[in-house]
Amino acid sequence: MEHLDRMVADLIRHAMSAAGLTRDELARLSGVPEEVLLDKLDAMDSFDLYELVFLAAVLDCRVADLLPEMAGSS
Asked: Which end of the chain is more exposed for a tag (fewer CB within 10 A), N or C?
């Protein structure tokens, strides 16, 4: 699961960079507490669906854009 957590965190960091947001700005705008966001960006915990929805809204992307494409999916 840690590998998946890292992949999601990498995609969120990429979306943050594209949006020109810092971690603290993303935390403030999304409502995800900064310490929680930092732990999850370090893959110390998994993002839950609600967090991904709020993050995607702030990052102006789809939740699916924050999830890795899995091999074999159709």
From this structure: C
